[in-house]
Write a structure and sequence with these properties.
Strand content: 15-25%
Largest sheet: 8 strands, antiparallel
Structural class: alpha+beta
Distance between the termini: 32 Å
Order of helices and strands: HHHHEEEHEEHHEEEEHE
Radius of gyration: 29 Å
Number of strands: 10
Helix content: 40-55%
Length: about 250
């Protein structure tokens, strides 16, 4: 999977942007103040009357510059306050209920494959790589031999995932996933009763058509389902919600 090292949706990134805006504002104010010092003082007076006039003119010019500085400071502060970040996934969507994660034997028109048939798919899909979490294969409503691949990983199984959820936001998690899947037209959808975030996108077309992959995340789980027989992103999102809610029981 491609992992983006900088999370532009995180609160720490937003804090950094706000600090940068404040530093730029402070620099601009300093430049304005020092650049106008000669203009603020005006010409040196040669007499008492001219001294009084020069003092009044210098005071007016100083007030003008102070007004400009206040306007710059207000704009910089407004800019700094406009940066809002998201908390890490573990904080944004904590899992409070007890839960049991297990593949449902049937999800709508999709039927769980078992035995040698599932083992064969597992051998082909793994190809020497260790999958993260658990994976299941489903027959689908289409003509192909396989209609869906469900994959779920949980923090209780994977310490690395737990650490990731303590640092990355949900948006960044899904961005990394879909970047690794090279998905296009990625769209956000309602995440369902378990909360978190869910998105779906198209992946590279193959001989069987144009598969859709949906992925979801919350404070305790990262899951995805690859659907071979769905044709629209909203339809795939509905199926993905069924996979999520039937495969992850909460009490």
């Amino acid at each position: 999977m491609i992992t983006l090292s900088v999370d532009p949706t995180s609160q720490s990134f937003a804090d950094g942007q706000a600090l940068g805006a404040l530093l730029v504002t402070a620099t601009a104010m300093a430049v304005i103040w020092f650049a106008t010092r000669t203009w603020r003082r005006g010409p040196a007076p040669t007499g008492a009357v001219e001294a009084e006039q020069a003092f009044s003119a210098a005071l007016r010019r100083r007030n003008i510059v102070v007004g400009v500085l206040l306007a710059v400071a207000a704009a910089g502060l407004a800019r700094a306050c406009s940066y809002e970040g998201q908390p890490p996934t573990a904080e944004a969507a904590p899992v409070a209920q007890e839960r049991v994660i297990a593949a449902a034997p049937r999800v709508g028109a999709y039927r769980l494959l078992a035995g040698e048939e599932a083992a064969e798919y597992e051998r082909v899909m793994t190809s020497g790589r260790t999958p993260s979490g658990k994976r299941w294969f489903y027959d689908g409503p289409g003509q192909g031999p396989m209609g869906a691949i469900l994959q779920i990983n949980a923090v209780e199984w994977d310490a690395g995932l737990a650490e990731e959820k303590r640092s990355d936001t949900m948006t960044q998690e899904l961005r990394n996933f879909f970047a690794g899947a090279r998905a296009s037209e990625v769209t956000d959808f309602e995440a369902g009763p378990w909360g978190g975030q869910l998105s779906c996108g198209f992946i590279t077309p193959n001989a069987a058509g144009r598969p859709i992959v949906c992925a979801w995340t919350d404070g305790g789980t990262s899951g995805s389902v690859l659907l071979m027989d769905e044709r629209s992103l909203p339809g795939a999102a509905g199926i993905a919600l069924q996979f999520r809610t039937t495969s992850e029981k909460r009490t």
